[in-house]
């Protein structure tokens, strides 16, 4: 098509309709006027939160002091382009975006009017600057017959503990989706054995969280993983602070003060991820942000992302001086029926959705190990109170919902515990009086250090439902779902200290439809 045809086509296409509600009109220069002294697209590009007809594309501009223009209130505008081919010859849509310092110069564009199950390429332009090109994919139509869902499950990427060779490997895979289940950043630093260092202090303010994300996002392997695939994201605790629960942190900070920190952390999280929704402006301190969703993948799967942090009850039997999770032997509070990991509303929404789902696979992507990791000791069984073991009645409600309604082909996908797990799920963990009703896979950390081998061997011995539990290697997990089976592959490296490390297959497991429980493949 020639230039005139192209312009006519553009006017007729979805031009302008793709503006995100998160973009406010601002006084801005026309894009062509900007000559950047420092390249603004240093944090790369990303896409995510796909639906069958739309996807979010993201970037965040770093605006150097030398590029800051007093006249324009730090507002910047530019363009985005979406193509049907990698060579960028077949345009699909394009449009304008505006951003400013109040959102950290982040750009979120919801590109709509797209075709289901299609790959697209996109880039951002601003003055004389052009971003790298990302590729993304829409979900299949909700009622389409789909032959596969191939995803990478990842979590826990402490920047100091290792390089992101796992992301480099993941970027090269043929995937429909990356599902990241939490600990995208770590707020804390530990100088012991670190491979590289956080450059700032522990973040507490919005500016500090932004700097922290900017450092993580500067990693070329992480950028490659974002540029290669759409991501679906869930957070855990370290995106704010270790072991926080709802309005409480482990230091028992005054909730008003803590909620202000949580608001800063949530805002920064939104600014750095390809998300549809940011913090709820009507919530106190703008400290609430909805992240739990259900994504239908044709008729093949319903994929839930579940928020295990924002709405949970505080950890049971917490130490009155230093709160958060800990290992306890006796704790009556654990048995209180109303205690919840997801919060009452999210639980209700999930149970309704599970009962209504007519799709083959019911996939629950959530932060942590669903099965038990309690350890037998001469004094009794230990319980780690931050995980699902610390919310046993809530776990039982979820398992009862699956069992009572005979919901088949449920697979939980988790992270957080820095080990690969393939496990069996029953109404009561490890109790052979209850049948296996669902399957569990947990991915090891991308880079965060593993647990002690002696602890994990005790966990294995005490919990026969954990068929596979290894904490010694870092990496991610490939999961391929088809109408007949789910095949998972733990891809790992012993220690990602060097950027030349490569991943290998630690183990493969298979789940057949209608037959819950992984088996070695
Ligand atoms: Fe972690
Ligand atoms: Ca965690």
Please estimate the helix content: 10-25%
Shape: globular
Estimated radius of gyration: 23 Å
Distance from N terminus to C terminus (CA atoms, Å) equals: 51 Å
Query: What structural class do the secondary elements suggest?
Result: alpha+beta
Number of strands: 26
Attached small molecules: fe (iii) ion, calcium ion
Q: What's the arrangement of strands in the largest beta sheet?
A: 5-2-1-11-10-9-23-24-25-26
- How would a crystallographer describe the biggest sheet? 10 strands, mixed
Determine the strand fraction and express it as a percent band. Answer: 25-35%
What does this entry look like structurally?
- The protein is α+β, with helices and mostly antiparallel strands.
- Helix content is 17%, strand content 26%.
- The chain has helices at 3-12, 165-171, 206-217, 220-228, 255-271, 344-356, 392-404, 453-462; strands spanning 45-48, 55-60, 76-83, 91-99, 106-111, 119-126, 129-130, 134-137, 149-154, 177-180, 230-233, 293-297, 301-305, 327-328, 361-365, 376-377, 380-381, 383-384, 410-414, 420-425, 438-442, 466-470, 474-481, 485-493, 504-512, 515-520.
- A ten-stranded mixed beta sheet has the order 5-2-1-11-10-9-23-24-25-26. A seven-stranded mixed beta sheet has the order 12-13-15-19-21-20-22, with helices on one face. Strands 3, 4, 6, 7 and 8 form a five-stranded antiparallel beta sheet that branches.
- A hairpin with a 6-residue loop joins strand 1 and strand 2 (55-60).
- It is globular and about 70 Å long.
- The N and C termini lie far apart (51 Å).
- Mean pLDDT is 93; it is low at 1-29.
- The chain binds fe (iii) ion (FE) and calcium ion (CA).
- Calcium ion (CA) binds at residues 182-183, 236-238, 416.
């Amino acid at each position: 098509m020639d230039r005139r045809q192209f312009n006519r086509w553009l006017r007729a296409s979805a031009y302008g309709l793709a503006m995100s509600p998160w973009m406010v009109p601002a006084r801005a220069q026309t894009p062509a006027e900007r000559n950047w002294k420092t390249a603004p697209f240093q944090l790369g590009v990303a896409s995510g939160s796909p639906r069958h007809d739309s996807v979010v594309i993201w970037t965040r501009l770093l605006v150097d002091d030398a590029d800051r223009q007093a006249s324009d209130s730090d507002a910047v505008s530019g363009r985005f382009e979406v193509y049907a081919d990698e060579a960028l010859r077949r345009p699909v849509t394009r449009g304008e975006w505006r951003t400013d310092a109040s959102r950290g110069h982040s750009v979120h564009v919801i590109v709509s009017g797209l075709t289901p199950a299609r790959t697209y390429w996109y880039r951002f332009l601003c003055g004389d600057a052009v971003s790298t090109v990302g590729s993304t994919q829409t979900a299949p139509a909700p009622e389409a017959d789909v032959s596969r869902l191939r995803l990478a499950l990842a979590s826990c990427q402490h920047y100091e503990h290792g390089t992101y060779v796992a992301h480099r490997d993941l970027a090269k895979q043929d995937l429909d989706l990356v599902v990241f289940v939490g600990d995208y950043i770590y707020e804390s630093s530990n100088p012991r054995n670190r491979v590289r260092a956080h450059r700032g202090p522990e973040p507490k303010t919005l500016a500090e969280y932004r700097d922290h994300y900017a450092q993580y996002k500067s990693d070329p392997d992480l950028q490659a993983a974002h540029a290669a695939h759409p991501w679906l994201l869930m957070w855990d605790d370290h995106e704010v602070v270790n072991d926080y629960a709802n309005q409480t942190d482990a230091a028992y900070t005054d909730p008003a003060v803590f909620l202000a920190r949580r608001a800063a952390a949530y805002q920064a999280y939104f600014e750095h991820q390809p998300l549809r929704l940011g913090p709820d402006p009507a919530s106190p301190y703008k400290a609430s942000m909805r992240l739990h969703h259900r994504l239908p993948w044709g008729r093949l799967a319903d994929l839930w992302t579940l928020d295990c942090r924002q709405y949970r009850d505080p950890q049971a039997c917490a130490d009155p001086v230093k709160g958060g999770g800990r290992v306890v032997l006796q704790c009556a509070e654990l048995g209180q029926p109303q205690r919840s990991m997801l919060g009452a509303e999210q639980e209700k929404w999930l149970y309704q959705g599970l009962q209504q789902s007519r799709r083959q696979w019911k996939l629950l992507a959530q932060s942590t190990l669903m099965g038990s990791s309690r350890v037998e000791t001469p004094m009794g069984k230990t319980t780690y109170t931050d995980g699902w073991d610390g919310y046993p009645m809530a776990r039982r409600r979820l398992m009862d919902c699956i069992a009572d309604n005979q919901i088949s082909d449920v697979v939980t996908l988790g992270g957080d515990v820095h080990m690969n797990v393939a496990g069996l799920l029953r109404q009561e963990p490890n109790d052979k009086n209850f049948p296996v009703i669902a399957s569990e896979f947990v991915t090891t950390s991308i880079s965060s250090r593993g647990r002690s081998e002696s602890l994990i061997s005790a966990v294995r011995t005490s919990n026969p439902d954990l068929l596979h539990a290894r904490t010694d290697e870092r990496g991610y997990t490939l999961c391929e779902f088809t109408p007949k089976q789910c095949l998972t592959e733990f891809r790992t490296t012993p220690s990602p200290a060097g950027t030349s490390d490569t991943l290998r297959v630690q183990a493969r497991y298979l789940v057949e439809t209608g037959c819950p429980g992984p088996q070695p493949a």
